[in-house]
Write a structure and sequence with these properties.
By secondary structure, this protein is an alpha/beta fold.
Length: 146
């Protein structure tokens, strides 16, 4: 098996223009998407993006990059969240098209970015397939304190 070597680490505010790497991995913020995509394309490196909250312009940069290089773009790489996505697809098949669904996404009060959109993405999974359903999805902060 081939071993992996980390050849660079960047932080918020660092400039990225190119990379001497096989793969660029970005879990920073949506605001970095355009620069990261440009650097990956210029370097012919594959790209992994695990950030959320992209603007239309940032999504377009990712889609354009994906036409030139391999791109893995996921809203969440957590095993638990992806299990939730899969389970909502299965639930949609079992519950049928008349089932009324509400998804409430809750985060702790100190969460930096409230809108992770996991609930919205789970709702999309629930509504996909042959039956298109309307759902209510909302996000809120949890008020509890330890």
């Amino acid at each position: 098996m081939r071993s992996a070597e980390i050849v660079a680490k960047l932080d918020l505010g660092d400039r990225i223009t190119s990379a001497d790497a096989d793969v660029l991995i970005d879990f920073s913020s949506a605001a970095a998407a355009e620069a990261v995509c440009d650097a990956a394309v210029k370097s012919s490196a594959a790209l992994v993006i695990g950030t959320t909250g992209h603007s239309a312009k940032e999504k377009q940069a990712i889609e354009t990059a994906a036409q030139k290089i391999p791109v893995v773009f996921a809203s969440n790489f957590s095993i638990g969240v992806n299990a939730l996505f899969s389970l909502t697809e299965q639930a949609a098949k079992i519950l049928g098209e008349n089932f009324d669904l509400e998804i409430v996404e809750t985060h702790h009060r100190l969460k930096e970015r409230r809108a992770e959109r996991n609930g919205e993405n789970a709702g999309r999974n629930f509504c996909s397939g042959p039956q298109r359903r309307k759902i209510a999805a909302r996000a809120r902060r949890n008020d509890w304190r330890a």
